[in-house]
Amino acid sequence: MSRDLKDAFGGRAPLGKHPAAATIEDVITFQLHILVAIGERAGQHWSERMFDLSLNEWRLLALVKARGPCRASDLADLLLMDKSQTSRVIKSLQKKDLIQNMADPTDGRAVVLKISQKGNALYKDVFAEVMNSNERILAALSVEEVEAFEKTLKKLIGHSQDLLEVRLGRKIVR
């Protein structure tokens, strides 16, 4: 274990909390990967077919809606994308007239992104489909299980972001 990660755990290795794992398929992070991959495959299909958007375009558009106006570098952090990939997605959304540049109100030299009227209208339609899709996935769980899962997921994401900041040696936008 690297020195930085040991420091993140108070100078000691993390406690052994993971359930017994005989193969990669038993590893919790692999199981999460499979869940995400299934959602990605299905989401990519309907987002392109129904809305002419890739999943990365949808996610960036949704974050501009939620956080806008915002800087491209902040979006890259939030989406865990490299800056060149983020730039390509931004250019694609601008070409489709879904987001626009504007001067940063706090720094006239910088540019921030905001959602356009066309982007706002599309966002509403896509978000409705996203929520329908999530309801189908969550149908296997009780309301209590969904609440517990969301709470646990947020806790794991926050902790993983902390660990990522240690690895990167810098704060990330959350």
From TrEMBL:
Entry-linked PANTHER family: TRANSCRIPTIONAL REGULATOR, TRANSCRIPTIONAL REGULATOR, MARR FAMILY
BP-aspect Gene Ontology terms: response to stress
Name of the protein: MarR family transcriptional regulator
SMART domains (alphabetical): HTH_MARR
GO MF term list: DNA-binding transcription factor activity
The HTH marR-type domain, residue ranges: 1-158
Gene3D superfamilies from the UniProt entry: Winged helix-like DNA-binding domain superfamily/Winged helix DNA-binding domain (1.10.10.10)
Pfam families: MarR
Domain of life: Bacteria
PROSITE patterns associated with the record: HTH_MARR_2
